[in-house]
Amino acid sequence: MSTTGTLWRTAVILLLAISGAVAAFATMAPPPEAQLLPERAALVEALPIDTDDALVPSPASYIREEQFQRGDTLAAFLSRLGIAEPHVGRLIKLNALRSLRPGMNVSAVVSAEGMPLSLSFFNGRDALLEITPDGRVAERRAAFETRPAMKSSVIRSSLFAAADAAEIPDSVAMQLADVFSGDIDFHRDLRKDDRFTVVYEVHSLLGRPVRAGRVLAAEFVNQGRTFRAVHFGSSYYTPEGKNLRKAFLRSPLEFSRVSSGFGRRLHPLFRTWRAHEGIDYAAPTGTRVRAVGDAVVEFAGLKGGYGKVVILRHQGRYTTVYAHLSRIAVQRGARVAQNDTIGFVGQSGWATGPHLHYEFRIAGQARNPFSIAMPAAQPLPAQQLPAFLADAEPLVARLELLADLTTLAQGD
Ligand SMILES: [Zn+2]
Q1: Are 102 and 70 contacting, i.e. CB atoms less than 8 angstroms apart?
Q2: Distance of CA 255 from the midpoint of ligand 1 (Å)
Q3: Which CATH architecture has domain 3-16+145-246+377-411?
Q4: How far apart are the C-alpha atoms of 94 and 76, rounded to whole Å?
């Protein structure tokens, strides 16, 4: 295709994407707690300033904002905000300022003479702390503005590298792995050129993004197979309303930055399933091991070469085995739910390095779980389907537009 043609097509799709976004998200009502914060000036006026100092009229005051840096002393930081020496000495004794952490931004209203009229910053718990010159502290719950963000990326080396490249937060990458954990083993199944698109909430304060929220919709193309998810109620469904939760998770290990790169190292015990009727996941000692499905603990203890091992009995004829643990977190006879912690990775028994040996058995026979179609969890109740489809349609349209753009960008 000619460059002009590609450009033209990109332009048309961009236009569609922009108008599509407006249509798609006009229907997304903000959560009730999301309100705009009052203007900064209003906040300052509302401060109860009643010390003698503060009553002195200050014809010229200004607002200054600085970030508390690693290695900053409180005194140096307050000076940088333009606060004069005698006031600095008084302020550094305040307990409220001890909750300052590197990376936090502080707004100060300071008089022309260097007298602080107010200091305010967001603490780590989503509250706005306002400090008056006399040292009184008012804490307000912060009001967030929530908007959807949309990102796409292509896997070159790992999911986290792809997320980093598109400036997608870790919490979103991990949700993505969780949403598709019934279909994709993110430790073993990812391939170069797999790609994904994700729509997620971003919470902002005063127009500044503070943190990411839930994933609202996502598409993952893994080894040529396309999986889609739409958030509804407390679960994720396919655009047709099928539940994405499966009776079994694809991996007994959670996907994380730590565990994601570990398996790539050469490991003397890393063998194929065929060689010894199980799957070995190389992972650091202490990594959480989770039940792949609801079960009763059939065995928890020492067993020969398995070392510390947990065996779970699931519904039907299924059992799963988790061996070489460093620590067991369940007792025989206990009921566990899917994703519950049952133990931690180690190298007990016949193992020369930390790894999890995992077996999936049907009627007592070890089977390769990757060759078995897993039973799905309950679909959406029929009476909820119309509401779901109405919610899902604009999100799915958005996913398709972004996926097209990514494909175009790759083609160039
Ligand atoms: Zn093994």
Answers
A1: yes
A2: 19
A3: Roll (3.10)
A4: 15
pLDDT of amino acid 61: 75
| Residues surrounding ion ligand 1 at CB below 5 Å | 278, 280, 357
pLDDT for the residue 259: 60
In the chain, domain spans: 3-16+145-246+377-411, 40-141, 262-371
Residue 39 token pair? 């203007």
Closest to 199 (Cα-Cα) out of 9, 20, 12: 20
Tokens, residue 33: 């707690």
Task: Return the pLDDT at 225.
Answer: 94
Architecture label for domain 262-371: Distorted Sandwich (2.70)
Sign of CA dihedral 304, 305, 307, 310: negative
pLDDT computed for residue 402 by the predictor = 76
pLDDT along the chain (412 residues), means of 10: 41 37 36 34 32 45 82 90 89 84 84 85 76 80 83 91 90 92 88 93 79 93 94 91 88 77 42 60 92 96 94 93 97 96 95 89 83 74 92 88 69 45
CA distance linking residue 366 with residue 276, whole number of Å: 9
Query: How far is Cα 156 from Cα 203, in angstroms, rounded to an integer?
Result: 29
Listed in sequence order, the residues at least 6 apart from 91 whose beta carbon sits closer than 8 Å to its beta carbon are: 74, 78, 83, 97, 116, 119, 131, 135
Q: How far is the CA of 218 from the centre of ligand 1 (A)?
A: 33
Centre of ligand 1 to C-alpha 245, Å, is 27
Ligand 1 mean position to 328 CA, how many Å? 18
- Whole-number Å distance, alpha carbon 58 to ligand 1 midpoint, is 74
The CATH number that domain 40-141 falls under is 3.10.450.350
Q: How far is the CA of 281 from the centre of ligand 1 (A)?
A: 8
The ipTM is 0.97
Residues 131-148 have pLDDT tens digits of 887 778 888 776 778 888
Distance 352 CA to ligand 1 centre (A): 11
CA of 357 to the centre of ligand 1 (A): 4
